[in-house]
Design a protein that fits this description.
Layout (H helix, E strand, L loop, with lengths): L1 H22 L4 H12 L7 E5 L18 E4 L2 E4 L7 H11 L5 E3 L13 E7 L2 E8 L4 E6 L2 E7 L1 H11 L11
Antiparallel strand pairs: 1-5, 2-3, 4-8, 5-6, 6-7, 7-8
Helix pairs in contact: 3-4
Amino acid sequence: MKTIFSILWATFLALSLTASASIYAPDVEAHKVFLTVAKEISGTTSFTLFVAASRFSHPDELFEGNENKAKEIDGYVFYEDPIELSHLDIIRIQDLFSKPEYFEPYTTGKFCGGFYPDYAIFWKRGGRGFVAYVCFGCGEIKAKTDKGSTMVDMTKEGRSEFVEVLSKFGKLHKNQK
């Protein structure tokens, strides 16, 4: 009986690893595209930052203890009023996106409950609009332009730096710190 269980377990692991090698392979091309988009943030002075409401909220509901109404942006629920950013805040956000070592190719299979951003950062440059959705639960950033969207993972160091800069604008869940 122990031998049969061992064989079944070994077969399961082998199949799982084989499947995960293709399913969870890093998306290197998307990473390159993201780094190109991230460069567009340097020199930009016009930013808008939205903080996410609960992933389970509906735009018409009020988030617990907050008087801000919520609105939907690209299928995600954010507080309606954008955050006022100081000049220093803008410089720090630009600095985050200027460091390629803070990002790595996107992989799937994180079992985090699905991408749901904590913050949406909008900016314009040369007449083009950009948005970066930052999700600390997954450790991912989704960048969106007029030409499409791409995703990357934050490195451990990058995630830590993003948390340090952005957490002052809204409460993070305990698993996102």
